[in-house]
Design a protein that fits this description.
Layout: H1 11-15, H2 20-39, H3 69-72, H4 80-87, H5 89-103, H6 108-120, H7 141-157, H8 167-176, H9 184-198
Bound molecules: fe (ii) ion (2 copies).
Length: 199
């Protein structure tokens, strides 16, 4: 299935279809993923996944380009039907990455990693997430990293419902969901090293 009406040549062109705050959120989440991997001693994981200078870390919500614009980045309460529509962004994201590496085999590692991140970044460690309700190690590692980075980006930035949280408040919020939403090992290393760095 072709989900994008045009041949996918440049992921960055696709990203430009998102509103500015959406682009910033994707880039910021990618940066937090790098920080998390570095403090876990896994900073070398990114390099082999790069393709044409692009990192699969920077596009977790790329599937939102295929949502109705009024739903993609709105701080408003959604109806159930709207919520299900928004949840579709994880499948769209995976399909965009799949399309890229099916068209260009040199993008295979990039596309598979990006596809896993896009598809599974809303899975929860305890199995309560979507789209599959996977839990623990069933969720690809980079998607577990992205789940933490994604939430951290949202907490720090604030939304229509909440003002930006302080660094410490955001770390505490991650810790509260450690083991339920998030991989406890990722949360504990990230929060510990971040506090250490501030001292
Ligand atoms: Fe998302
Ligand atoms: Fe996100």
């Amino acid at each position: 299935m072709r989900v994008v009406g045009v041949r996918v040549e440049k992921l960055t062109n696709l990203m430009a279809r998102l509103p500015k705050e959406g682009i910033l959120h994707n880039m910021e989440t990618g940066q937090y993923m790098r920080v998390i991997l570095r403090v876990m001693g896994k900073g070398q994981m990114e390099e082999p996944l790069l393709w044409k200078g692009l990192s699969p870390f920077d596009y977790h919500d790329i599937g939102k380009i295929l949502l109705p614009r009024e739903l993609a980045y709105q701080d408003q309460l959604f109806s159930d039907a709207q919520r299900y529509t928004v949840m579709g962004h994880v499948d769209y994201g995976e399909q965009i990455f799949r399309q890229i590496w099916e068209e260009d085999s040199t993008a295979e590692l990039f596309g598979k990693a990006g596809g896993n991140i896009a598809l599974f970044h809303h899975e929860c460690y305890d199995g309560s997430g979507y789209p599959d309700g996977r839990k623990e190690d069933e969720i690809p590692f980079l998607a577990r990293v992205c789940a933490v980075a994604n939430s951290f980006s949202v907490l720090r930035k604030g939304s229509g419902f909440s003002s930006p949280w302080s660094l410490e408040e955001s770390l505490v919020a991650l810790e509260k969901r450690s083991g339920t939403w998030f991989d406890p090992e990722i949360v504990s290393v990230f929060t510990e090293k971040t506090r250490e760095a501030l001292e």
